Amino acid sequence: MIRAVKKAGKRMIRLAPFLLCASLLTGCSEEQETLVYVGQSDNWKAILMTVHTQGTEKEKQVLRLSYKSADIDSVYNIRYRLTGLTEEVSGREDDMNNKTGIVYHTDCSGCALTDESSTFTVTVDWSPNRKESFSLQFVRKE
């Protein structure tokens, strides 16, 4: 009986790499298309990445806002808005202390998918009484 268990264990060990590879290939079989949009103002830079899974109506969006100036400690009460997606994206941060940027993740299913001609506008308000708006332009497809 012990011999039979050892043989079965050896078979499982030999099968493990094959099963791992098969599961990885299956998980990666869905093709994805990523579109990247970039824009900037005097003080802010934004990168929007939209990831569409081919053959579906699902899309994930990631917005990254970065403050460009050296006086990042003076930036607080930040409110941002992205228009151009099916639903408007907005958020707020108290300050930028210890942050290299603001990252906002969202996704949708059954929404209007982005393409190379999609247009987006980012508006950032921050204290004291500062506001900038700028457009994001398509830069590449991955």
Structure description:
The structure is a single chain. An 8-stranded antiparallel sheet has the order 5-4-7-8-1-2-3-6, with no helix packed on it. The chain has 2 domains: 1-29; 32-141, Immunoglobulin-like (Sandwich), CATH 2.60.40. The protein is elongated and about 45 Å long. The protein has one helix at 2-27; strands at residues 32-40, 44-53, 58-67, 76-83, 89-95, 102-109, 120-127, 130-141. It is built from 1 helix and 8 strands, in the order αββββββββ. It has 142 residues and is α+β, with helices and mostly antiparallel strands. The termini are far apart. This is Lipoprotein. It comes from Aneurinibacillus danicus. Residues 1-22 form the signal peptide. Keywords: Signal.
SSE ordering: HEEEEEEEE
Identify the quaternary structure here: single chain
Give unreliable regions as ranges: 15-27
The CATH superfamily name of the largest domain is: Immunoglobulins
The number of strands is: 8
Strand order of the largest sheet: 5-4-7-8-1-2-3-6
**CATH topology annotation of the largest domain:** Immunoglobulin-like
Total discrete domains: 2
Q: Structural class of the secondary structure composition?
A: alpha+beta
Return the CATH architecture of the largest domain.
Sandwich
